[in-house]
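Narrative of activities, Objective 1.

The group set out to show that a structural description can be obtained from nothing but a protein's sequence at a throughput compatible with the screening campaign. Below is one input-output pair from the validation batch, recorded exactly as produced.
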Amino acid sequence: GEICAFKIHGQEMPFEAVVLNKTSGEGRLRAKSPVDCELQKEYTFVIQAYDCGSGPGGTNWKKSHKAVVHIQVKDVNEFSPAFKESVYKATVTEGKIYDSILQVEAIDEDCSPQYSQICNYEIVTTDVPFAIDRNGNIRNTEKLNYDKQHQYEIKVTAFDCGQKHAMEDVLVRVNVKPVCKPGWQDWNKRIEYKPGSGSKPLFPSIHLETCDGPVSSIHTTIELQTNYIGKGCDRETYSEKSLQKLCGASSGAIDLLPSPSATSNWTAGLLVDNNDMIFKFDGKQGAKIPDGIVPKNLTDQFTITLWMKHGPSPGLRAEKETILCNSDKTEMNRHHYALYVHNCRLVFLLRKDFDQADTFRPAEFHWKLDQICDKEWHYYVVNVEFPVVTLYMDGTTYEPYLVTNDWPIHPSHIAMQLTVGACWQGGEVTKPRFAQYFHGSLASLTIRPGKIESQKVISCLQACKEGLDINSLESLGQGIKYHFNPSQSVLVMEGDDIENINQALRKVSYINSRQFPTAGVRRLKVSSKVQCFGEDVCINIPDIDAYVMVFQANEPKITISGMDHFARPAAQFESERGVILLPDIRIVSTVTKMEHPVDEDDRANKPVVLEEMLHNLDFCDVLVIGTELDPEHECLELDHVELQGKHLDATNSTAGYSVYGVDSMNNYEQVLRQIRYRNWDTSATFDRKFRVKCSELNGRYTSNEFDLEVSNHLVKSSFLE
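Output recorded for this entry:
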């Protein structure tokens, strides 16, 4: 009647059943060894109860029916979530909001749904524009910007439903990719140019990004904007006289707008620009050219040259604006010849005298050009070969669009007045005055009677010394068409292969051939048009805006040296050849260069190196100090044969001797060493002082003042050779 045992049937179950009370049959089922839910979540087995049997040995016991036992192992939250990947990566395009950029996934090895399921994900990194949902989907909360940040690194953790979080956060890398924008890439906005560095590539690494657009051809325009440098670009700033000599122009050009000086004072009252060779006319000023400067008869062949910058005229009825006018000084108001602007047309008037012809002749020549009113500098040359008049503007020929005829002027004995910037009204008014004033800027206004100028000389006179250039034309690549404008400030390139265009643009350079260029900024603009295969809508290429920074050249220091005093017997001064004034004159130019010290702290003591340099001069004056030379008994002389084969000319006066023209220091030395001083007044002893001064670039760089003293009385031994 008692229960003696419980038996478990099944393969090695980790359980045992023990009897607690034989009489009542109560027993306990317990684990024999630790159970692990993760190894086995549940067990099912059969159990039977046994009585104590018969006899002392307990044999012949009876067993109960079989009962099925089902055990579920209860889970403990012992495991933390762990991510499937060690790093997650994704790439997004800037400017877009994504529903899901990527999904992270964590797992938990606990066995129960409560502890093995991931209930939540969280971004650990603060202040990032991302959010994550409970399924691990990461999205951006704002539009990303490639320029602001190329890449984000964020840490993420996971929680199981028992709120246990991952032992290690996972790294998520999000790369931001720029929206593909068609355009030129890998170029610098600022390009530095040092004087004397020749041809410098502007965009050595440039290439075009087309964003896989089906491009069939590219048309690119590179423009160098130099209109605010000098007269429209960097040119030699020599005087007009020196430039004409340098360009091989026929001699005899008369400068009507010279820099004010003792011999040419009629420009003294005019407004000058920051450069004293540019004159500004504000509609209130004119200049009278003194009689005798320009001959009355210009002949049937003559040339007028000028630089002009002019804008549209104010007011509805535009007045005539005089550049140059030759009119009656008194009594009458007849214009004999004139060059003026009227309603953005350039007009040249030439009235013949009756003694030359008595027939109806061409008298007014009109040109209509946009450039006359574009507020930019242009070079104009009027070549007169009567009855034909030709205009050259910036080296290009233009025929007049209108020629009107007139009768010749009746002869009279009224004197004529030549003026610049306005026309002199001598008659038909109570008091003679200026009229028809010019508004704009003029420079280098010359007139050359008796000769007209060749196209070659005209091109040289207006040539720019800076411009665009192509390095190694022969390697430009197949299928590239290119074209320069005359001044090489605009270059147009066309091609159908992107790589060829890239290569061609890398070869485009800036060059400035001046030894002392005008320092400052030159703006650059590159505009491109693209055609695509069979598509109406094609990609748009933004313009490039860049600039060339031209550095200041090292300033040269011009030094004149030589014997600075001597005495000679009077007989030598009286002789036919006189005395050579500057037998050993030397002209040397040096520039100061800083040596760069190795030690940064040693900047204050860095050595200064003087380096000799060669450059041209454009005039040297030998001036008389004190009373001017008395032509009755003294003079300075130079055999003009000494000037032959050189770009030099000379003028002589009682105030001194002036040698001018663009030439080497060596040629100037050779000429100055031949200037002789003669004095044939034997009765008196004399001391004469002279001063020598030289210039480069019309006085931009000047030498020291070298003083020389000569005498005809041998007083001190120090004067003797």
